[in-house]
């Protein structure tokens, strides 16, 4: 089965590029840029990755991102993830980045985006991997700050396919960002948002009805509303589920408690994604393997999950036909 999973050509739709920063590269960049990090060894870093909820992870994730300074750093970060795509047989990836976690530290927007874009161009050229970039707004910050970031992004519009919403969910509902999502829609951006990762289903309803999103990131709390489940099924709204993330952040106690199989069996459009693989013990294949080992998943289920991700991607219909 491991070989079967490995060999399937896959897409990834929910991956924070800053969450692919491996401890080894964090150490190297800290040294290169003369940045102090609170760890003496790579093992120290790994020991710190012991989370109790989303916020306990985010604190460490934002601290880790402080080592990213130059365009080359963002290139190296992205290139290392591309090498993992090759290992995992990921043929198409749609990556999130958090510009505000960098611009807030005085790093220019263009430094971040151009480093990422250059690596993704090389990925296409060297490995034929296709990709897209989705810019996320940090929901713990204000809508005003999101609007400012949006205006800054317009100069790089051609590189950004869509906008998303991430960071601390509870207490920061989608309704806080109605205006900026409306603007993004008017400008032709695709829309996604993290919703129902930890917070209740009202966040998912708001994301759908107030922000008009086309995909829900996580969405595993949907199961608590049969009304919502019916709607998600009927409209085939994609849910980009991240099993390792949900276990590491204690959304579910263990893999056998994860509800992805129930969502799939109900007829929802769910896919498997790695979220922040450097922090959550593994890349895409490992997510599938963990599900396979703990849930009653057949080969058909795995194929369906992979097809869902290719189908729900923002690639052109022509490319979709080629891939599926
Ligand atoms: C994230 Cl797992 C998760 N949830 C919300 N925001 C995030 N940013 C990076 N990883
Ligand atoms: Zn995420």
Automatic annotation (TrEMBL):
Residues binding substrate, per UniProt: 276
Gene Ontology CC, one term: cytosol
Example GO biological process: nucleotide metabolic process
Cofactor(s) listed in the protein's UniProt record: Zn(2+)
Comment on bound cofactor: Binds 1 zinc ion per subunit.
Site feature (Important for catalytic activity) residues: 218
Keyword presence, Metal-binding: yes
Residues annotated for Zn(2+) binding in this entry: 14, 16, 194, 275
Annotated catalysed reactions: adenine + H2O + H(+) = hypoxanthine + NH4(+)
Key words, A-Z: Cytoplasm, Hydrolase, Metal-binding, Nucleotide metabolism, Zinc
Adenosine deaminase domain boundaries: 9-324
Molecular function GO terms recorded: adenine deaminase activity; zinc ion binding
Active-site residue list: 197 (proton donor)
InterPro entries: A/AMP_deam_AS (IPR006650), A_deaminase_dom (IPR001365), ADE (IPR028892), Ado/ade_deaminase (IPR006330), Metal_Hydrolase (IPR032466)
EC number: 3.5.4.2
A matching Pfam family: A_deaminase
Purpose of the protein: Catalyzes the hydrolytic deamination of adenine to hypoxanthine. Plays an important role in the purine salvage pathway and in nitrogen catabolism.
NCBIfam families: aden_deam, PRK09358.1-6
The family this protein is said to belong to: Belongs to the metallo-dependent hydrolases superfamily. Adenosine and AMP deaminases family. Adenine deaminase type 2 subfamily.
Protein name: Adenine deaminase
């Amino acid at each position: 089965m491991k070989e079967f999973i490995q060999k399937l050509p896959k897409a990834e739709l929910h991956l924070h590029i800053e969450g692919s920063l491996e401890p080894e590269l964090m150490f190297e960049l800290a040294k290169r840029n003369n940045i102090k990090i609170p760890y003496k060894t790579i093992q120290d870093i790994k020991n710190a990755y012991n989370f109790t909820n989303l916020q306990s992870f985010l604190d460490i994730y934002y601290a880790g991102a402080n080592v990213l300074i130059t365009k080359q750093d963002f290139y190296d970060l992205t290139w290392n993830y591309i090498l993992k795509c090759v290992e995992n047989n990921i043929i198409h990836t749609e990556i999130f980045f958090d510009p505000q976690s960098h611009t807030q530290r005085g790093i220019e927007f263009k430094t971040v985006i151009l480093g990422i874009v250059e690596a993704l161009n090389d990925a296409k050229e060297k490995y034929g991997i296709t990709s897209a970039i989705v810019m996320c707004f940090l929901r713990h910050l204000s809508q005003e700050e999101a609007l400012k970031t949006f205006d800054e992004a317009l100069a790089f519009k051609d590189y950004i396919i869509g906008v998303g919403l991430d960071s601390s969910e509870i207490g920061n509902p989608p309704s806080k960002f109605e205006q900026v999502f409306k603007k993004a829609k008017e400008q032709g951006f695709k829309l996604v948002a993290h919703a129902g990762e930890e917070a209740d289903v009202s966040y998912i309803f708001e994301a759908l009805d107030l922000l008009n999103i086309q995909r829900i990131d996580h969405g595993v709390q949907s199961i608590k509303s049969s009304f919502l489940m019916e709607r998600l099924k009927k409209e085939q709204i994609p849910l980009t589920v991240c099993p390792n993330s949900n276990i590491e952040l204690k959304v579910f106690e263990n893999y056998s408690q994860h509800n992805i199989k129930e969502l799939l069996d109900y007829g929802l459009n769910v896919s498997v994604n790695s979220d922040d693989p450097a922090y959550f013990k593994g890349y895409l294949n490992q997510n599938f393997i963990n599900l396979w080992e703990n849930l009653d998943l057949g080969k058909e289920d795995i194929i369906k999950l992979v097809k869902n991700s290719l189908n729900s991607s923002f690639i052109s219909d022509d490319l979709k036909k080629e891939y599926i």
